[in-house]
Every structure is written in structure tokens, then in C-alpha cells.
């Protein structure tokens, strides 16, 4: 688990909002080059690492490398910046945060500003803040000063420190989904030392946080690879905290093991095979029902070309899309071992056809 921990920590510190994943993707590829036989990228910024050029079936292990962020869309004459969300934001969590903008001249710090509570009218204090109520303060003296430093369309992320609490809990802003990218790398690392039949390609996909209606990098990378099998690694909501309604969102616990999903998007024979692999290695698994779309890269992969047998393995995550997302390293380690075990036994004789 120590190797996996170091991989995750290296990935978490790199910025990578959707469409601007370069720094995070480069870290991912650098790690992959330590053990993979082949590492490459494509026009969409997706990164690939393979155990071998030959082998069958071809298996895609996909985790998205992008994170949510903000984008500058207006600079006023006083030098304050106004932003839009890259991906899904709860504006409440942005209040008072430090931001690192990725400008043409390098990283630039700023602070999310809001009127102080002392200056608010009583009714304002009870209203939920909207993104349009906030601004970014970079210490500029004027609009011209700000425009020399920042361009419309520059993106940024929350400036935060990755920490470990307890023995195995990792806290960071980009757990969604650097956790998945770390797991696919670790699974590939474990497989590279085994004589297995499949060609396994780990992929750090791009654009997932904005890809719901666009397809994202998962669609283009799966079209390019044309795999017979795809296993998607993402995070899911842990519901083991106050005010989480298990009747609505299910029972998912941090440290309870990786989560397997059953649903219309997911191939039942592949899911059954992963469940059996979990039994063989003694891995505890949790279950999630996904009767329609999963909200992950699986939605863009399973209908690629003539269709791909797709499964979703999720890592329990508390406080998703916040500056302090929590995952348990034990869940990541178990997910990597589960996938490695399943693919060790996989060969061309397995039929994923429905019916």
C-alpha cells in the first residue's frame, strides 16, 4: 500500500481542471513510465499506459484525471475577477478560499471575496450564496493591472494542502478522481509482473467533470482503443456521516471496501466476475444500485463502437466536490488488488454477451 500512497500523493498536488489537465496528466505518465511497457497520449489529452502491445482481450482501466475548478470570465475596472465554475460547485464551499490561477506566466494566488457578515443585512445572512455573489481578489490596483496578470479564460483550483488523518485517511481537494487514476496505475503495476493473457491499458481520461452532455475523454479514448472490456474507477458518495439519508443514497462506508455497481449501463457477467475475484482474495466489497446513468466515464464507454462490456468500481468518498474530500487508502488498495486478481484469470474464453 505504500507505493499506492506515494502515487496518490504525487497526483493530488498537481492542478488539473477539466480541459487543462496537463500538469496532472504529466505526473501520471511519469509514474507510469516507471513500470509500464508503453506510455502515450492523444489529442484530447488522455494518457495511456499498457502492459504489452500484444495480448487478448484488450482491457481498458479508466480513471479521470481532471478536477473541478473555476474560470475567469470578467475583470472589472477595480481589478476584481469574476469566475464561472468548471464542473459542479456548491458556492458555499468557495467562500473565503484561497485560489491558485494557472496563468500564462505561471501560478498566481488569489482569494475568494464576499461581503463581511458585519456589512450584511439580516436577511442576507440566511441566504445561500451564489457564485455570482463572489469575486476573486488578486491584490490588483486596477483593472489594467489585473489584465496584465490574468486573461479571460484562465482557470484555477482551490489552493489546499493534502493531509493524512488517522492512519489511512487522505484529505485533498482532487480526490475526485485522482483516486481512480492512482488505482488504475497500481492495478497495472501489479499486473506487469504477472504472466497474463489480456492486453491491459490504464487510461487517465480528461474532461469527465464537464462531460455529461459532451462525452469527454472517455468516449474518444475508448473509441481509439476499441477494448472488449472496460473497468471504470471513480469515487462515490460515502453515506457514513451525519444527515446522509441511506434510504435515498444507499449504505456506503469509508474503509468498507470498494463499491461495485449493478445497473443498466453495466455488464452483469463482468460484475459477477469481479465479485468472484473479490471472494478469491478475501476483499470486502460494498454494493450500489445504478438503474440508469452512473454519472461516470462508464456512461460514455459502454456504447462505444459496437458496445463494450463495462463495470464500475468506486471508492467511497466523503464531502465530494469540496476542498476537503476524504478517502481511505485501504479502499484504494483493495480495489487495485481486486482488479489485478480478476484480470490475472481473464482470457478470450470469457463471453460477455447479454442473454
Write a structural description.
- The structure is a single chain.
- With 355 residues, the protein is an alpha+beta fold.
- It folds into 2 domains: 2-67 and 173-345, Aminopeptidase; 70-158, Peptidase M42, domain 2 (Elongation Factor Tu (Ef-tu), domain 3).
- Helix content is 27%, strand content 27%.
- The chain has 9 helices and 17 strands.
- The chain has helices spanning 2-12, 22-32, 143-149, 175-191, 216-225, 246-249, 268-281, 298-301, 329-345, and strands spanning 38-41, 47-50, 58-64, 69-75, 81-86, 98-103, 106-113, 135-137, 155-158, 163-165, 169-172, 199-205, 229-237, 259-263, 286-290, 309-317, 325-328.
- The strands form 3 sheets. An 8-stranded mixed sheet has the order 1-2-12-3-13-16-14-15, sandwiched between helices.
- Strand 14, helix 7 (268-281) and strand 15 (286-290) form a beta-alpha-beta unit.
- Helix 4 packs across helix 9.
- The chain is globular.
- The two termini are 39 Å apart.
- The relative contact order is 0.18.
- The mean pLDDT is 94.
Amino acid at each position: 500500500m505504500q507505493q499506492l500512497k506515494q502515487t496518490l500523493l504525487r497526483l493530488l498536488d498537481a492542478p488539473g481542471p477539466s480541459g487543462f489537465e496537463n500538469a496532472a496528466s504529466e505526473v501520471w505518465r511519469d509514474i507510469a513510465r516507471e513500470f509500464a511497457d508503453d506510455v502515450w497520449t492523444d489529442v484530447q489529452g488522455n494518457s495511456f499506459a499498457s502492459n504489452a502491445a500484444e495480448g487478448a482481450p484488450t482491457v481498458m482501466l479508466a480513471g479521470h484525471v481532471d478536477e473541478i475548478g473555476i474560470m475567469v470570465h470578467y475583470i472589472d475596472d477595480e481589478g476584481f475577477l469574476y469566475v464561472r465554475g468548471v464542473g459542479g460547485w456548491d458556492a458555499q464551499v468557495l467562500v473565503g478560499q484561497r485560489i491558485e490561477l494557472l496563468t500564462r506566466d505561471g501560478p498566481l494566488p488569489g482569494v475568494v471575496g464576499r461581503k463581511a457578515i458585519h456589512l450584511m443585512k439580516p436577511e442576507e445572512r440566511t441566504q445561500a450564496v451564489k457564485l455570482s455573489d463572489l469575486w476573486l481578489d488578486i491584490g490588483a490596483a486596477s483593472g489594467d493591472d489585473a489584465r496584465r496578470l490574468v486573461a479571460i479564460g484562465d482557470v484555477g483550483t482551490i489552493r489546499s494542502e493534502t493531509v493524512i488523518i488517522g492512519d489511512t485517511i487522505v484529505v485533498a481537494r482532487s480526490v475526485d478522481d485522482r483516486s481512480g487514476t492512482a488505482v488504475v496505475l497500481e492495478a497495472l503495476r501489479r499486473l506487469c509482473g504477472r504472466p497474463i493473457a489480456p492486453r491491459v491499458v490504464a487510461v487517465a481520461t480528461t474532461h469527465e467533470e464537464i462531460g455529461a452532455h459532451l462525452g469527454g475523454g472517455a468516449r474518444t479514448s475508448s473509441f481509439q482503443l476499441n477494448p472488449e472490456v472496460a473497468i471504470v474507477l471513480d469515487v462515490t458518495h460515502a453515506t457514513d456521516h451525519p444527515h446522509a439519508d441511506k434510504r435515498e443514497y444507499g449504505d456506503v462506508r469509508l474503509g468498507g471496501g470498494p463499491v461495485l455497481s449493478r445497473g443498466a449501463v453495466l455488464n452483469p457477467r463482468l460484475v459477477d466476475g469481479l465479485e468472484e475475484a473479490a471472494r478469491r482474495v478475501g476483499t470486502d466489497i460494498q454494493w450500489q444500485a445504478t438503474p440508469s446513468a452512473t454519472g461516470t466515464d462508464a456512461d460514455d464507454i459502454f456504447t462505444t463502437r459496437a458496445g463494450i462490456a463495462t463495470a464500475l468500481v468506486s471508492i467511497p468518498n466523503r464531502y465530494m466536490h469540496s476542498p476537503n474530500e476524504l478517502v481511505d487508502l485501504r479502499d484504494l488498495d483493495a480495489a487495485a488488488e481486486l482488479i489485478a486478481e480478476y484480470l490475472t484469470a481473464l482470457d478470450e474464453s470469457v463471453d460477455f454477451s447479454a442473454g
